[in-house]
Design goal:
Blueprint: H1 5-17, E1 20-21, H2 22-28, H3 36-48, E2 52-57, E3 60-65, H4 69-84, H5 89-99, H6 104-122
Antiparallel strand pairs: 1-3, 2-3
Length: about 120
């Protein structure tokens, strides 16, 4: 199951805050801030989808994510590779490195990361 763009925005704030009451989430939004009812609706949908839960303190709810940011992002990247690059990480890497205007320094950093991962997997 996926989140809408606005739900993802709320998730970004929750991942950053780790736990938050409605007021904290609203404070994280830039101006103009959305209506409280809008954020409440988004949080309800996200709870129904299993991305968020809360602890009840009287009438107040403290929300927190059930899904780690890295897990959510990893699922999206893997879906992107599967759907747009014929399930080929090599095609994705080729596109990513040639179409994203990376500097030589950034490409060298990527190469170092790949080389380190290769060494880890060989062990």
């Amino acid at each position: 199951m996926q989140l809408s763009k606005t739900e993802e925005q709320v998730m970004q704030y929750l991942w950053k805050l780790e736990k938050a009451f409605m007021k904290d989430i609203l404070d994280a939004f830039p101006e103009p801030k959305p209506a409280t009812t809008t954020v409440a609706t988004l949080l309800k949908r996200m709870t129904d989808k299993g991305f968020v839960t809360y602890t009840l303190y009287g009438k107040s709810r403290e929300y927190y994510p059930l899904v780690k940011k890295t897990d959510y992002f990893s699922k999206h990247v893997n879906g992107l590779i599967k759907n747009f690059f014929n399930d080929s990480a090599s095609q994705f890497a080729s596109f990513f490195t040639s179409e994203t205007n990376l500097s030589t320094s950034e490409l060298e950093d990527l190469k170092k990361i790949v080389d380190e991962q290769i060494q880890k997997q060989k062990k």
